[in-house]
Amino acid sequence: MVIESTATDTVASLGENESLRRTVSRLNVGEIAGEWTLVGPGDDCAVISAPDGRVLVTTDTMVEGHDFRLDWSSWFDLGWKAVATNVSDIAAMGGKPTSLVVALVVPSSTPISGLEAFADGLREACLALAPGCSVVGGDLASGDLVVVAVTAHGTLEGREPVLRSGAQVGDVVAVAGTLGLAACGLDLLLSGRADLVAAWDEWVGVQRRPNPPVALGVAAADAGATSMLDLSDGLARDAARVAKASGVSFDLSASALLGFEARVEGAAQALSGGDSVATARLTRQWVLGGGEDHGLLATFPASAVLPRGFRPIGVVGTASPGSVSGVTLDGVPIGELGWDSTSH
Amino acid sequence: MVIESTATDTVASLGENESLRRTVSRLNVGEIAGEWTLVGPGDDCAVISAPDGRVLVTTDTMVEGHDFRLDWSSWFDLGWKAVATNVSDIAAMGGKPTSLVVALVVPSSTPISGLEAFADGLREACLALAPGCSVVGGDLASGDLVVVAVTAHGTLEGREPVLRSGAQVGDVVAVAGTLGLAACGLDLLLSGRADLVAAWDEWVGVQRRPNPPVALGVAAADAGATSMLDLSDGLARDAARVAKASGVSFDLSASALLGFEARVEGAAQALSGGDSVATARLTRQWVLGGGEDHGLLATFPASAVLPRGFRPIGVVGTASPGSVSGVTLDGVPIGELGWDSTSH
Fold first, then answer.
1. How many helices and strands, by DSSP H and E, does chain B display?
2. What is the pTM of this model?
3. Which residues 135-164 of A are in CB contact (within 8 Å) with B?
4. Mind listing the pLDDT tens digit for each residue in B29-74?
5. CATH topology for B11-155?
């Protein structure tokens, strides 16, 4: 039974236990199946199914002021994003998300309607991004700023996990999902220009509610992916991580990134006042440096058929001792492009 | 390899990634086996073993100022307590803890030595309370207050989970572990009396580093426990939860609690200035209302042999429609004892 709360209820007025109960009551309504849930919320633990005797586990934290602002993201957005960022890590191992637990810290003045919208965001993101996955447990605590800590679980269904360390020289480098849209959306929000935010609301929407290609994680594993990672800190930095873990270099092709850059060119032009050099710089910054789209970066043997949704963007080469990052763009070490990989 | 940090390093000076790396490097040294860990920290996910195809999952959050104070607890204490409070929930289902993931939010001014001591506390608590269990993943974020969110996993090894809802009329009610020591320790700290804190440092130690009887969870399940719960909010409130979930009443015996009250009588006398009425009130408050010892409350069939470490404290009766809490002490509803079950 879902009890509709009144507009004036807060965590303080209802207490943490009742607030948590109200919030949890929104999680398992409608089409949510929770097909991996053997014992759901309400006891000391939940019990989830792990049919092949193994469980994928990942955790990700979002802190108010650092990872989100409540004037830019709604409570629904926050719940959605908490699911998206975590199930994307499950996908990046070649797994299917099965369950989440959510720890939420909020000021006691937080309206219950906010918590309910947060729960709605959790539920709808599970339905949209990882059908069958559900929230099996949580914790609600009071604190002076909002913190969301989610732990996600997944099943490999008998497959071997796809690690960061498996890329082989000669492999194809490919990405699934979008690149740079969330970073573009963030810069639009940072600009304070309501007209630009409205004009490119779809990119702002990717920042608020990322749409990671979760099902493509399993598809990549089935297609023989040798390494994979969730793109959360930007292509340049995340590619460097895989290259380092695998002891190889990633040689990316600038022409393969043009399609990604074209999508954000209009917003870049608007933000840079039409200056073409600044526009080109901004689009590259977003596509190479922008995180939070939560696409997948994977390597495949040259003979593999890429799953629909993956696009080739380069090849795996031998690690060159001189390169710091292990990533080049058209043969130029990415650190020498005069571009700041740490600014996002 | 463990790198010893200098006294001046902070999260801000080293950055979140390097700070996390340093912290994680302390987790898997020495005797830690991590026998359930198939893929450890460092990739998008960890992979843990779930031999019987099921996983117990629980999450618990601690917030600075609400759940702990850094002038009362060291970073080591905090790590220890984060493990203790979570593995205790695994035990309360009849399970064995296998792995933890830890999300930590700290101010960027936090010294790395603090994070290292926190990691040491996590590691030592795993070794002491749940051998074989280890930290398989984590996340470090910056924020203006300290938040620790832990998710623990466990295995049932083929057993059925022991739920809160299984208590039967005629069962014996029993507890394992201590009652009221952590609450006594908290009141000693709240008194601001260094002499009293020193005199009863063992009880203050239970507040700082709880020592839940984790192995007795499996023992209780094997002995046929019909219901079980981790005592975290005090005997009166937690017993009411099980009674409600099971549709029964818990009839506790005051004489069975005397042994628990005797252990804290000296501290109660000192805090109440020798007043015998106030002393009796305080000891009862601690034993019935004090949480955070993280003992186990369980019910067993009358014919069961209680595992060593469990003490009988009452019997399960039929639910009486008049009783709010479903818990009586020597036949008197606990709500009529003139005692505030919500003050701790």
1. 12, 13
2. 0.93
3. 136-139, 141-145, 147, 149, 151, 153-154, 156, 161, 163-164
4. 666 667 899 998 889 999 999 999 999 999 999 999 999 999 999 9
5. 60s Ribosomal Protein L30; Chain: A; (3.30.1330)
